[in-house]
Amino acid sequence: MLLLRADTTQGIPLVAGQLCFPNAWCLEEKLGKSFLAIHQEVPLFAERIGRSSYLLLERLKVGRPVWRLNWAIKNIPRLNLTPRYAHEVAQAQRDLTPDAIGERCLLRVERQALTRLPRTQDILFIIHTYQEPIAAIAQNGQQARTLLGVLQTTPPEVLQYKGIAPFAPMLIEYLLDQL
Q1: Using CA atoms, how far apart are residues 51 and 11, in angstroms rounded to an integer?
Q2: What pLDDT, in 10s, does the model give residues 42-99?
Q3: Residues annotated as part of the active site
Q4: Which of 75, 137, 139, 151 would bridge with 92, disulfide CB 3.0–4.6 Å?
């Protein structure tokens, strides 16, 4: 649960929060930063969805929450993935094999909801994290094809940012074998 201040002169800064299951970031590094500054390291964010995302926040109405999904593929089941656990992620990546990738890798989906608070006009940002082994997704042909298509069409810089690039070819091969 995060709180964004409804201050457009400051770029809608992140001012408070409790983050249980971060995905490769930590709250301390983002506190006080504007919405756009928080996302500046995300490849293609500024040029593709930065402005429209900011306008969505700016125009969010009380009583009209919005939600979105954010996805990643992780090679360890840990929900808390602050940067201090990067060594575990790196080790798990080195241990991936074609035979084990379906069981070891998980599709991680964050359901993110944004709600404008009536009294302060600030924005409450809630994140609920779900994980599912890729092997379970591969059992459903349509889901496997969808994930395969996403992996094959995601820009390389985004795969790199999400930490998927080092094992993407092995994962794509696994999914192809399951179809």
Answers
A1: 11
A2: 999 999 999 999 999 999 999 999 999 999 999 999 999 999 999 999 999 999 999 9
A3: 68
A4: 75
Distance between CA atoms of residues 89 and 45, nearest Å: 24
Paired tokens of 179: 């179809």
DSSP 165: G
Query: Is the Cβ–Cβ distance between 157 and 91 less than 8 Å?
Result: no
- Is residue 70 within 8 Å of 110, Cβ to Cβ? yes
* Residue 151, SS3 per DSSP: helix
CB 3 within 8 A of CB 11: no
Q: In what order do the strands lie in the sheet with 106-116?
A: 14-17, 2-4, 123-133, 106-116, 66-74
How far CA 133 is from CA of 136, 139, 161, in Å, comes to 5, 10, 21
Q: Measured at the alpha carbon of residue 3, what is the angle toward residues 110 and 81, in degrees to the nearest 5?
A: 40
Nearest Cα to Cα of residue 174 among 71, 75, 70: 75
Q: For 90-128, what is each residue's pLDDT tens digit?
A: 999 999 999 999 999 999 999 999 999 999 999 999 999
